Amino acid sequence: MTRRPDIDDLLPLASLPTPAPAREPTAIARLTRGLRGLPAAPRWWGPGSGGLAGWLHQGPGGMTPPTVDRTPRFRALLHRVREGEPVLPPEARNHQYVVVRGMLGDEMPGYLLDNVQRLEGRGLSVREADVDTEGLLLSNVAVLREVLLDARHFGRSVVLVGHSKGGVECTAVLAMYPELRSVVRAVVALQAPYAGAALAHDLATTPEMRRLIDFAFPLLFHGVSRSVEELAYPQRMAFIRQHPYPTDIPTVALATSRLSRLSTLYPLQRYFQERYGQASDGLVMPLDAEIPGSGVVRLDDMDHSEAALRALPGLGRYHPGDVTEAMVALALEER
């Protein structure tokens, strides 16, 4: 018969220290563990986004509203801004400026800070839209719709200022809700991948690279990986065909590129140059940032971060506040 242990038998066990619970691996550790299984791959995986950049402007003549090159006027305004001269028209104070952040904007310290401070410093009313920068397009469009409904209720006119994915969402809300177009005085789209983003397309369509967003995006940024896929070319093609952007809203679009070792995005700029033989700002190719029917500013010496983040001295040629002030002044000249 087996003897049941009495209290004296259990005392030595009770005196042993309780082991500490196993520590959860960090996000980086979990990401590394998830990516260990990536197979060896050749230099490039498949066709990628080859031949897709600029698709919106490659259709039959007359099908796409033409853009207007506003680069010379922008440069003149930018020069005056840098000289400390006023460039905003008197009507600028009549509007509310709704700033919309782009992808991962919530994760980057100082993102769009200079842009907002410049507009506020000029005595303008600024509101930052409460979008989820790692969220889905339609969810953020719903947020912007409420902002515009609020402005309409109080009899205010709005200037939408969106950077990157934020610019895509600015155009989307007006394309989907035509009844709100009368609320908007102008749209400023800074480096928005309106027609699609080659990087997002490559990440979403290449199995070996897809794992990066499927694992890293929810894990590190609590985001929805499908929000990256929404910027791929097929998704943007389908959306634009169903919801074309109206041509009766004064709109200016900033389309940029750069290939410089001084840029923090140089590896990506070089990737696009070597793989596709095309210039980019590191994330978006210039033609994809040109919105049909808009005034377009084309710069070949600005990367994707310079319109929203202040560069280290000597590494960038533009100040985000200067760019935003000049672009807003340009947009308010449009009728």
Written overview of the protein:
InterPro entries: AB_hydrolase_fold (IPR029058). This is AB hydrolase-1 domain-containing protein. Residues 1-21 are annotated as: Disordered. It comes from Myxococcus stipitatus (strain DSM 14675 / JCM 12634 / Mx s8). The chain is of the alpha/beta class and 335 residues long. It has a domain at 62-194 and 236-333: Rossmann fold (3-Layer(aba) Sandwich), CATH 3.40.50.1820. Helix content is 39%, strand content 11%. It is built from 12 helices and 7 strands. The protein has a 7-stranded parallel β-sheet with strand order 1-7-6-5-4-2-3, with helices on both faces. α6 (165-176) links the parallel β4 and β5 (184-190). The longest helix is centred in the middle third of the chain and has 17 residues, at 137-153. The model is unreliable at 4-24 and 34-41 (pLDDT under 50).
